Amino acid sequence: MPTIAPSLIRDLVEAAASVAAQVELSALLRSTVQTGMDLTGAKHGALGVLGEHGALMDFVHVGLDPGVARQIGHLPRATGLLGTITRTDTAVRIDDIGDHEDSVGFPDGHPDMTSFIGVPVRVGERVFGNLYLTDKAGGFTEDDEVIVEFLAVTAGTAISTLRMQERLRRAALHEDRERIARDLHDSIIQDLFAVGLGLQASMAKVDNDPTAVHQQLDTSIDKLDETIASLRRYIFDLRPPVWARPSLPSELARLLEELAAPHRVAVGLDFDCPPDIPETPVADDLFAVIKESVSNALRHGEPSTVDVRVVCEGEVVRASISDDGTGFDTDQESEGLGLDNMAERVERTLGSLFIDSVPGRGTVVHVAFPLQPSQSK
Ligand SMILES: Nc1ncnc2c1ncn2[C@@H]1O[C@H](COP(=O)(O)OP(=O)(O)OP(=O)(O)O)[C@@H](O)[C@H]1O
Ligand SMILES: [Mg+2]
Predict the structure, then answer these.
(1) Could you tell me if the CB of 301 is within 6 A of ligand 1?
(2) Is the preceding omega at residue 278 within 30 degrees of 0, hence cis?
(3) Atom of ligand 1 nearest to the CA of 337
(4) Phi, then psi, of 109 in degrees rounded to 5
(5) N or C: which end of the chain has fewer CB within 10 A?
(6) What gap in Å lies between CA 301 and CA 294, rounded to an integer?
(7) Predicted TM-score (pTM) of this structure
(8) Ligand 1: does its nearest atom lie under 6 Å from the Cβ of 325?
(9) Count of domains in the chain?
(10) Domain boundaries, position 276
(11) Is 148 within a domain?
């Protein structure tokens, strides 16, 4: 084991910190090369990034005049000595590149290089690339080899951290997208649907009952204004729209009346919970699931009646939404978002959902939420 002077240990710690501080891959690679040159006194340095089959994908170099690099015009071929490191997965240290048995010489215009050290950079189990340093006056020492190996390990760890962060960032973005789609569907899109259905229903009355049409238009305009206000709040807060809710049962009654208006269907509500229970956010989830289930029944089931029951039992609130419509095959894939969103709300809150539907005989949606949300996000 070579011994390392205390001042060198300090240099190494600083080097590790500066490499690990990089938040972007190309800056990290460049910083690794530069640090290697600073610590060893090498005149040139580079980091070659390998692709799937050991071919060179990228080559970050420091110290070579840009004009000269342009004149050479291509990346190293990763054959010859550079290829040896990839193949053997070990460090190579020599005083003169030309002396190595695998050396194939330099391309036209490439400056002559003599002393050389090269080490693989591993990320996890895989070789990510190789770190090369050349041209140290007097040649690279055993200490230099320790330093460069250390730097390669540091860089490998930092690259793996960067990749992990990138994956987490993407996952968070994806989650946000899903949440936005869900919120828009459950509130805005459903509301617009209801307005559309209301207008459609009033078309039949244009000739015989202009007063009813007039009323319907007024209601629709109000509803559109409300929806625009909701959307505006949502855009500014990026949070689900908050309804001014006097209390859940009266808000549910209003919702059901609105949804039923365009259809000739009786929608009943039986609400059996203590006052002000459930509270938000459970009330929001319950409201959304009932809204979706009732609009599904009305839109898809052609029922003659729809019944909504809500009951609080101990630590849970249960709801059932039943219709006597067409029913449907619950195993059938659908492009809609409604059922998926319901399932997602239930999963997030550790609730339960069961859809009992028989084609030709109607549908009952059973849902339950814990009154004390344990996992709500
Ligand atoms: N009560 C019901 N009666 C009959 N069919 C239903 C009922 N509920 C759901 N379905 C069927 O299940 C499908 C999926 O429902 P889902 O709510 O996921 O999507 P959607 O209503 O078609 O679209 P979205 O909810 O995104 O506006 C519906 O298209 C419909 O065929
Ligand atoms: Mg739906």
Answers:
(1) yes
(2) yes
(3) 26
(4) 85, -10
(5) N
(6) 10
(7) 0.57
(8) yes
(9) 2
(10) 246-377
(11) yes
